[in-house]
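hey
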């Protein structure tokens, strides 16, 4: 068996981290209304991400507590997650930190 020309990197870093799970925050008019009225953020997420993955990624990246998560798969094949925050965190503040507003 021949030896490889380039040494291979077998690091244990997960390729499915929080930056891959949460792709883009949505900035549509309806998502702005959700932020203001329901304390809910909306994101496009990886299709293979579970609600638990999304909850952990939100907690790690934005340091907020999540009350509930609803997900849908859009007709174009992308997954959308609606993340409702607990009452002690304000979705407007998180949206300002992200740069949505």
């Amino acid at each position: 068996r021949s030896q490889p020309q380039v040494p291979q990197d077998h690091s244990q870093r997960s390729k499915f981290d929080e930056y891959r799970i949460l792709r883009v925050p949505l900035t549509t008019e309806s998502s702005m209304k959700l932020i203001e009225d329901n304390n809910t953020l909306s994101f496009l997420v990886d299709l293979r991400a579970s609600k638990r993955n999304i909850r952990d990624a939100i907690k790690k990246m934005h340091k907020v507590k999540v009350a509930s998560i609803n997900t849908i798969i859009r007709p174009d094949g992308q997954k959308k997650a609606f993340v409702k925050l607990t009452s002690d965190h304000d979705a407007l503040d998180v949206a300002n930190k992200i740069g949505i507003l």
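Residues 6 and 12 are 19 Å apart (CA to CA). The longest strand covers residues 66-73.
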